User: Fold these one by one.
Assistant:
Number 1:
Amino acid sequence: MKSDVSLEASKYPFKEYFADYSVSEETRNKLNTTDILILPEPHKPSKYYFAQESLDFLKFCKSLDDGVNLDILADSNRIIVFERRSFDIWMPTIWIAEKVLLPIVVGLVTSYILRRIRGREKEECKVNLSIIVKNGEESKELRYNGDAKTFREKFDNIDLDNL
Amino acid sequence: MLKRFFEYSYLAEVKQIASALHDKKLELQSYNFSRPYEGFQEAEALLDRIKEYAVEHKIEELANAQLIARTYFRMFCQLSEYFKLLFSEEYEKTWNVLQSCLDSAFLVGQHTAIENRCEVPQIVDLLTGYEGLYPYRFFGSVEMVILKSECSICGNAFSSIDCPHIKGNLYWGEIAQEIITEVESEAVALVEHPLDKRCVLMISNDKRTEKEKFALLIAFTKQHISPFQTFSIEKQEAEPHYVFHLGTCVSFQEN
């Protein structure tokens, strides 16, 4: 049976994104100063769109006011969202500066999913998400495409030493 | 949130809403679907007064709770309208009303703890059962690129850091919504589980009559089962191709 979670070396095109969108130095520098970043997804040549839940997830995390250093990697005038009118949850690609932050992100995403499906708990709902974990010069990407209800359980089984 | 609303019973308007809801539920229980929205306009005027009171006295919880109570009341009216249309054999029209009623039920559920949702989960089960009787299996789901949008609460760009409002959350009796002002349509996907099931896909040269299209729905209504009886549908190879398994009946509660 195909697993809902996959792990591979990240090929996120930071350089191309920064060049294609003439991303400001201030925004680029967030990679050095922020713990958790929401990234746009390469959509087609030279187009980068944020996943449907990106802004609500960002606002949700900020509303918790729990001291997590989280931001969005885009100049304020270049935040473009790709919306799919589906009940499934299209979470953004989330970049984290250190693997020890993974449990925090998993906790935030879990809370967000529970909020999102509240009132429709019985319905089937899939979550689509990528988490890029920086580890020195290399990065790995965890992808999840599976049931909203088993998201937490699947991520709790991940051994941080393998990242 | 629903329970909290009725806890403000020191307000005469809250008591009046509870009484009007009681009447509406009695109407439904006696299968009287002739005037689905009777009493709702008066209830809305009372709810408007409650909202004004909440804002004046800075009680955001009450302002939000009145919106949920309003939606809860509307849900029963929509349920009544659904059965009115269904028993008038206006099958095509019933689909959107069913979806509106489900939307109301989902909104109440979203802002109310599971144990305080009263009849709402049963109504969702009931209507989900009815959904299965329609010939709609796939829906159109628009994929689009949102270039510009505003927040319905503060008017700022939805993507700006000046807007802290989260879509679907309640603020002083209003739901935060993203108002899209500039969009590029990318595609229409064929999905089984869209956010909005009103966009049904139909074959352009479908020559079937309404009765043929809605044969299963008609067959079910001809069984003269209580409209509030929950049920599930079992598909089988041999005739009859569908078997209905009955569940519990929606039990209307006092608020």
Number 2:
Amino acid sequence: MGILSRRDFLAATAGAMAASTLHLGGASAATPKRGGTLVATWGGFEPQALFVPPGGGSSPYFTSTKVIERLLKLTVDLKFEPVLATEVTPAEDFRSYRIKLRENVTWHDGEPFTSDDVVFNALEYWKPISGGVSLNALSGAEALDKHTVVLKFNAPVPEFFLKSVLAGKSGLVIPKHIYAGKNILTNPINNAPIGTGPFRVKEWVRGSHVEYLRNEKYWDPALPYVDRLVIRWWRDPASRSAAFEAGQLDLATFNPIPAPDIPRLTGSKKFVAETKGYSNSAWVTTVEFNNRRDIVKKREVRHALMHAIDRQFIAETVFFGRAAPSTGAIHASNALFFSKDVPDYPFDARKAAKMLDAAGYPVKGGSRFSVSVVSAGWFEENVKIGQYVKQALEDVDVTVNLTIPDRATSLKRIYTDYDYDIAISNNSGSIELVPSTTQYYTTDGIVKGAAFRNATGFSDAKVDDIVAQVAVETDPKKRVQLVHAFNKLVSTEAPMLPMVDLEPVTIARADVRNHSTTADFMGESWSDVWLDR
Amino acid sequence: MQRIVARRLTQIIPLVLGVIVLNFTLIQMAPGSLFDVMTAEQQVTNPEMLEKLRHLYGVDQPTYIQLFKYIWSVVTLDFGFSYRQNAPVLDVIMQQLPATVILMLAAIAIALLVGVTAGVLASVKVNTIWDNLISLGAVFFFAAPSFWLGIMMTVLFAVKLGWLPVGGMRSIGVEQNVLEATVDVMKHMLLPATALGLFYAATYARVMRASMLEIFRLDFVRTARAKGLSRTRVVIAHVLRNALLPVVTLLGLQLGTVLGGSVVIEAVFSWPGIGSLLFDSVMSRNYPMVLGVLVLGSVIVAVANASVDLIYMRLDPRIRAR
């Protein structure tokens, strides 16, 4: 099928890091061709607005990143490459960073891009709105000249951490002359964003598509390769398959079509399926134990229940093989921090039953105890996983009261009301673990009403201490060691652990070249994607 | 006549008020809120920012205040602001409602054309192979879910034969004059309108057949034939007109369900109507948008029902006399 598994992906990534060049699924050594219209979509719905300043989820991130750029980008082999910044250099004490900006860059309305824009973004947009706790340590930003900025911090900031922020979801650079003095969240321009990117918005037909045209004044005159980019929305995965087969769709990210259709499409050799390009937005399905509840508060009970769940079954049956059982708290595609040296909980129902006996919960009247399981209904797969987990726990004589609420209700029950014993949820983490992964385990991650953080109520001084060290450790090797210690500790405590690592897939026509080249391809500008027609 | 129209239109006011109060209450009773959804999507973790957003979205006020404020704004023809879409509610709806209305009208036209023709044919050829085939077809299209029918039609006509587009409402990035654009929209609309309309066509065919057969047995039809009128003239001028009354009744009753059915069909065919907007708004508890869609939808259905009443009077003057 031409698809790499997660293990193959890791091997390929490691190999690629050693080699000087990469031949990615969509990458090509051939000379790129100019022109054409690229029609793309993704496996989700239309965005609520083309640009949502605080984030807004994958859909507005997809549509805004074709227009609004960042200072850096992260390639699949974990190298930071320049976009709007040509250099990002730390001071010796890592408490300030000097950023040299690209010259001769203009916004889509013709205004020049300068260091004032970056200072405005750092202080008015990234720190208070998009970056959240990531930029807590940012204490100031200063423009030294038109193209040089210094970011100042009140603590040492690791280089990989800062560059990840600048290349990440929260590092989009918006124009000061448009947003200054106005409410960034409700500015009408968010539905027709202006940026420095390779494409500018031509029109958005709500419910149908957004059409972008080539930015003729882009700072790299050779880019973008395609003249027109159209992002369309089909709510129904089967309709996306039909659109591919009818030749009306070129490229689609994040599991756009039903899994059983993938071998049929790729078997024709007209399409390719690619799993690269997701490591900086790596999705997992998690099991979360509410530490406010007496039974699942006990570590040995959590371990037993983990053993009762066959995660291989979930990966193969629910996800049709497009997922793999997780190892520890870190997604396996994270080539920088992933480690296998953590406690694991392989499926063993007999062992689970014995452990529950030993924990003081023997079977009485046909049941050991009763738990409330909330499976967040925002993904179709969670419905099936919830039903499977209910059966699996009942196999070890645990009575399960399963509910699979819709998105709004799931958010309220899990993250506001903490109304569950066991929650089945999801999250996407970046390669940099602070805070996207660590906030599920640290005490400061407990914020009532704030979703996708520590909802379990787990609090451990050792974990907090290690994460605090990771946040300021500037030696990359020591940082990796600290992360491994963190991973081992939280995998042992298991207040919340990924059950399966999802392996999202991109489907593309075979003549679409140079896609899936970055660590978060969906959120890149796609300036270098070209059509071999 | 004018009095009847005025009375019908006046009835819309309590209807709209009822729609607002009922749906506002239902949304408020549902667990979770727009605030929960938006702060989750935006990954807001700062307590100060959470409070600021709570105030911005107006969810820090008591529910009854929110309701009265909303009713007052609707009275002043202001449907509010959707923070989720970052745009006025009416602007967003008016961008997408026309597509739904066009699809509804096309589906109803197909349903009436196919259903009435098939019903007439079946009644004229009663107990023949034609009658049996039409009955079989009606049962099939009545039983087949419209989304399944839509996918099957897409596979056949768009993927295998390549005659029609897979989805959308028009070709993107193509310069067209008015005529070309109209033809283009009709090509895009053919599959979704047919998939939506065939279900209703099946109903109309069955009702039309039964109604025609009943009218055929009445005295005035026998009289018309005894006067020497041709069979075709009797069917078209006398039987068809009277037999249409139950179909018109059904049409009036089903306008709301056609609007509901278009939500599913829009998803299959990527039709840029209000279906996806309504679905997303319900899921995100975006009550200004949900109420806006439902209020405008109920106005459309009420106006259409008033039009059906007028058609009724045109078909049967006895109704006007009463």
